[in-house]
Amino acid sequence: MSDRIQGLHHITLCTGTAQGDVNFFVKTLGLNLVKRTLLYDGKEPVYHLYFSDRLGSPGNLTTTFPWRRTGRKAKSGSGQISLTSYSVPTGSLEWWNENLGKKAVNVLERYERFGQKVLKMEHPDCPALHFELIEDAGDTRAPFDSPYVPKQYAIRGFHSWTVTLRDLEDMHFFMSEGWNHEKVGTDGEFTRYTVNGGGAAKTVDLLLKPDLAPGNWSYGEGMVHHGAFGIPDLDVQEQVKNELEGLGFTDTSDRKHRGYFQSVYVRTPAGALFEAAHTLGFTVDEPEETLGQAFIISPQFESQKEELLRRLNDPIVL
Ligand SMILES: [Fe+2]
User: Fold this and answer.
1) Eight-class DSSP state of 214
2) Is residue 106 part of a domain?
3) What is the pLDDT of residues 172-219, one digit of tens each?
4) Average pLDDT along the chain
5) Contact partners, residue 62, CB within 8 Å, separation at least 6
6) Which residues are registered as beta bridge partners of 265?
7) What is the Å distance from ligand 1's center to 223 Cα?
8) Closest CA to 150 of 29, 52, 54
9) What CATH number should be reported for the domain holding residue 111?
10) Can you tell me whether residue 225 is helix, strand or coil?
11) What residues make up the domain containing 95?
12) N- or C-end of the chain: fewer Cβ atoms within 10 A?
C-alpha cells in the first residue's frame, strides 16, 4: 500500500442542471445522491451534488456543479480530464447498451482498451461530458443497492480517468515523481499509469492529442473541473505538497477545508487540475439514514436557506 497518493477519490464536474444530473447519475447509472449542498465560491448560488454508493466511499464519488444557470459554457480541449470511467461486471455491457437506449442516452462508441470492453456515452443533459462503463472482472467492491439498476450490472465505482494532453514528457515526470504512479503500458493513443498495484480506481490514462487546442480551466458548463486522489492523512498531504513544489510544480494551493474533505490542489503539467483529498466523511452534518435527502447548507448561510433555494430555482425530484 502506498503511503502517499492511494488512488482515485472523487471527480468534480460542471454540468447542466440539478435534475439532469439526478436523472443521469441516479435514475440511469444507479448511483446514490449522498449529499446536496452549495458551491461556496462566487456570488450566485450553485448546487454541489454528490453521487456515490450508500455512504460516499472514496473511489466512487462523482460531484457536480450544475452550471447552466450562470450562462457560462466551457470550451472542451486538451489539458482536461476528458473521460470519467466506471467499472461494471464482466458481461454487463449488453444490458447497459439496451438500458441506456431506453433512457435516451447517446452511446458514442464501443471498443476495447487494454483488453477490457468499453462503452462510451454522453451525459444526456450535458453532452460535452463523456463517460465510460468498463467491464472489469477484478473489481470486488459492493455496488449501491439501486432501484434503477439490477445488482449484477451495477457500477462498482471508478475504473479510471483519462487526461487528454498534447505532450507526454512533463506529465510522465509528474505522475512518476510527484504523484507516485507507475507507467504500465500503452494501447494506441492511451498511456496507462497505476498506483497500489493498479486495477479499478487506481488507474489514470493519458490520451495523447498533440494537435488538440487547450480547453479552458475556469468553471463553465461541460467540463471536468478536477480529479481528486485519496491520501492517508494531513501529514502526508503536507509532504506531497512540499515534494511537488520541490520538483518544480509550484502551482499548488494551500490546504482548503471543503466540508467533507481537506484538500490541496495542483495544476499538473498536462493542464488538468488534481487534488490530494483527505476524507472527513458525509455524516459530519446529517445522519447516515437520511444522507442526501435534505439540502445541507453551511451554518453561516442558514438564515438565507429559503432565499438561496428560491434563487437556485432548480428543483430536484428523486
Ligand atoms: Fe474536490
Assistant:
1) B
2) yes
3) 999 999 999 999 999 999 999 999 999 999 999 999 999 999 999 999
4) 95
5) 10, 11, 13, 25, 31, 50, 51, 52, 84
6) 275
7) 14
8) 29
9) 3.10.180.10
10) strand
11) 7-312
12) N
Q: How confident is the model at residue 1 (pLDDT cuts 50, 70, 90)?
A: low
92 CA to centre of ligand 1 in angstroms:
30
Quote the number of domains for the chain.
1
Could you tell me if 276 and 8 are in contact, meaning their C-beta atoms sit under 8 angstroms apart? no
Is 2 part of any domain?
A: no
- Least Cα distance to 11 among 184, 223, 177 occurs for 223
In-domain check, residue 318: no
> What is the average per-residue pLDDT within 283-309?
90
Give the Å distance between the CA of 12 and the centre of ligand 1. 6
The pTM of the full predicted model, rounded to 2 decimals, is: 0.97
Distance 316 CA to ligand 1 centre (A): 22
| Ligand 1 centroid – CA 97 distance (Å) | 30
Q: Cα of 94 to ligand 1 centre, how many Å? A: 33
